[in-house]
Design goal:
The protein is an all-alpha fold. 61% of the residues lie in helices and 0% in strands.
């Protein structure tokens, strides 16, 4: 009985096949909680075994569409619990997607006291979610946009900044060193030359 008790107290050993399956399922639509339940463990164990999964480039189309649905509900003052119930996901998963896309600010209108790397990343992801394209440096440089005859582009920046708070392109360069580095950290694909939204401002 003593030996049996000691065995139960040892950390469970996971096979490479099981860990690979967890990673594959994390890359899909399943949440940590769902995977953990199928393996009769807790979500923190799944997270520890699979490691960080944020190294993939870009954000999947399915995730962006889900974030858009979450945003629409959040702007109607729905709580994370209500959104999760409506869409059929866990509250933790909904909260993580909101945070990843900067949607905390989309609802509360909060603005950071200083522009940290995280705060800037939240804004560029929120911009991508709201407007459907990754901004170029011109999108966050209203003076240059106006000089290029793209006043509507400048107006969009001012409207976004007024509602959610937005750093200037100079702040991005100061914090990240370059615009491309900021997009790399945010895991967003760089826009085509001229900016993904360039054509709509002509």
């Amino acid at each position: 009985m003593v030996a049996s008790s000691k065995r139960r107290g040892r950390p469970r050993k996971w096979s490479d096949k099981q860990i690979a399956d967890m990673r594959r399922r994390r890359q899909g639509k399943e949440t940590l909680e769902q995977i953990a339940q199928s393996y009769n463990t807790v979500h923190s164990t799944v997270s520890r075994l699979t490691g960080p999964m944020g190294r993939r480039r870009g954000t999947s189309t399915s995730t962006l569409r889900l974030q858009e649905r979450i945003l629409r509900l959040a702007q109607k003052n729905k709580t994370d619990a209500e959104i999760a119930k409506s869409l059929g996901y866990t509250v933790g998963y909904i909260s993580r997607l909101r945070a990843d896309a900067g949607m905390i600010y989309a609802v509360s209108g909060g603005r950071p006291k200083e522009w940290t790397r995280r705060a800037i990343i939240e804004r560029v992801r929120l911009w991508r979610l709201l407007y459907g394209y990754t901004p170029s440096a011109v999108d966050w440089n209203p003076s240059l946009a106006k000089n290029q005859g793209q006043s509507k582009r400048a107006d969009r920046y001012y409207a976004f900044r007024e509602k959610y708070g937005c750093p200037s392109v100079g702040t991005v360069y100061r914090v990240f060193g370059s615009w491309s580095e900021m997009l790399r950290v945010a895991r967003l694909k760089p826009p085509p030359q001229g900016g993904a939204g360039h054509g709509r401002w002509q």
